[in-house]
Amino acid sequence: MKELNEKGRLAKEASVKLAALSTAVKDRALLDIADAIVASADYIIAENRRDIERGIENGMSKGLIDRLSLDASRIEGIAEGIRQIAALPDPVGETVRGIKRPNGLKITQVRVPLGVIGIIYEARPNVTADAAGLCIKSGNAVILRGGKEAFNSNMAIVKVMQEAGYNAGLPEGSINLVEDTTRESSTALMRLNEYLDVIIPRGGAGLIKAVVENATVPAIETGTGNCHVYVDESADLDMALKIIINAKTQRPSVCNAEEKLLVHKNIADKFLPEVLKELTERGVEIVGDEYVCGIFPQAVPAVEQDWSTEYLELKIGVKVVRDTDEAISHINKYNSGHSEAIVTSNYQNAQRFLSEVDAAAVYVNASTRFTDGFEFGFGAEIGISTQKTHARGPMGLRELTSTKYIIEGSGQIR
Amino acid sequence: MKELNEKGRLAKEASVKLAALSTAVKDRALLDIADAIVASADYIIAENRRDIERGIENGMSKGLIDRLSLDASRIEGIAEGIRQIAALPDPVGETVRGIKRPNGLKITQVRVPLGVIGIIYEARPNVTADAAGLCIKSGNAVILRGGKEAFNSNMAIVKVMQEAGYNAGLPEGSINLVEDTTRESSTALMRLNEYLDVIIPRGGAGLIKAVVENATVPAIETGTGNCHVYVDESADLDMALKIIINAKTQRPSVCNAEEKLLVHKNIADKFLPEVLKELTERGVEIVGDEYVCGIFPQAVPAVEQDWSTEYLELKIGVKVVRDTDEAISHINKYNSGHSEAIVTSNYQNAQRFLSEVDAAAVYVNASTRFTDGFEFGFGAEIGISTQKTHARGPMGLRELTSTKYIIEGSGQIR
Question: Where is the Aldehyde dehydrogenase domain positioned along the sequence (chains A, B) (predicted)?
């Protein structure tokens, strides 16, 4: 695909210069970009308007229209995000380890940019700015492939970023947007091994699956979160209720929201009626196992597929389990490796849950909603990795780097 | 594929138990395995004999027969390798970082096994034991898919390892060998996403390419090394000669051997005749650019493809360059991201080379042959990663792990 080859080549060339850029120049460019985004708010909003109008014509849902829409305050939010990235420490050049060998060789493992990062995402134009900002700060060139629904908004944001960034000293070719928004361009980007060092999908399960199945470039799976809260027999039930309500309802459309509730059988009679009532009052639809449907007639009987589904809406699967063992094995069977919590007062059960549940983040007595770069104190992130290679959990600047061994000698041979 | 699904399921189950195993049990099992391998030398050698006989019947080359062959001393070497793995520190459970958040959440990033590792390799039976040993020590279950040429040897080694290992407390299913050695089983293993966490090919460029193109499981590219030595104008020429001879001829069949020599034009007249003579005397075939062919008539003229080829034999591509800039850009255009060296006495040129050459290991004044787990002081390795995600350079035990965030709270919600 001609556009991709051309942009790939430019990005690769830019990445060599970007890798050598000082933190001061990168930060200056990011701050200038933030200012330019605010100064160009009218232009960006006008272009965004075109996307929204087309979306309405095409019968796009209200939720999607909302995610797509930009106004002055959201533009300010985008700029503020870029400023926060500028304020984060630069991971490039960090020494990871240093070794002096008996033969006198000095070996230093240093952090370097990955090179060229491809990002494939859907209808949120703010991802354009966030992702490009994170890539720039970590010294990587970026090739963005956003959804066609946000095409005009993305083009506008990228134009503003390119102009301000290149004027401030970023090499041309650092920031690229794929203008071809067909499915073919997305697949071609996943297979652009000549130029890309990594491809990161940001979006729903369908996109992630397409990348896993088709990418030949190393890919990082992000985002799917079929998160569980398990309430143990010994739990503080007030605490458990608060955690469940928070994890399920505070922001149900995000990947760290709770999707499943497991309750120990010995407290089910006492705890379930209250929690199901509270959830229902907040508009949450209950999908339950036999026990739950027996005590709560409004519940919809769960089918096998429910246990592995990420609803991303006000809907929850509820199941009664015999003990912590059954909770752990149920979670390990059905979870997506994102965030899992136990509410308990029993030390051994807490330790077993932490050690045996296989997920990026495992919690005792806290809401799953904390799995987030900002909440962990790392700052902005490009997504939550749910795979085990390269990075697991929130992917901040450090996770957008690789390393390199530098070996300094004085003529050593083997 | 039935065999893979069954072994995948068993490996996955075993991996959960393996992850929780103490270092003491893993080390005991590895030492018992090493003893059992030595005690079973006659059996393993007899089975190896069958592979060799078939190889000879099928007209296998002398070099391959040699790589395939096991004798008492090589069996002792395999056992010693396993003992060395037992002696290495266990990376599982290490704290990578710990954070206390303002809201009281205690976040700890700990090292955990990857889970189930698939290894695809060719005709070297020693890889069977090495790879399984490294996976076990790092708490991972392993599914080995060796070449059909070494099938009986691999089966014998795996049987001995399973019996000794399971008796010493490793969960059954920890060590698996795929008995189907068709190309289909190799492809199916690369796509066994339900059970595998990572796939690592160990072998030639063809195998690596097949994995990159076909794998849906996260893969780690290893091994291809089109390594360069660049002799700068200011180099100590005696040192340069020793490094070139060592890097090219000490063991030409390995991935960190030198494949290309770049020489600064200002020293070409003085240096090249000597180095070409010394190489030729050691049986090295010279492939040269126009300049080299002009001064050295035995040289074969290089074609474009030579510059990107990993010969893995006594053959070297030689080219004269204008300056360090041209050396760096030639290397970055043609290298495979493995190991690259500059020989120089100029500080700035050394720094530029280290910073701008894009490879897993970059050297000043030392042989590329040091890119190796033992030489770096990390101990045994599963291969040299030439990609930038997950791990780059020698992949030891630490590189066979992932991490997990453990979050301990007291009822925190957002």
Answer: 36-281, 318-404
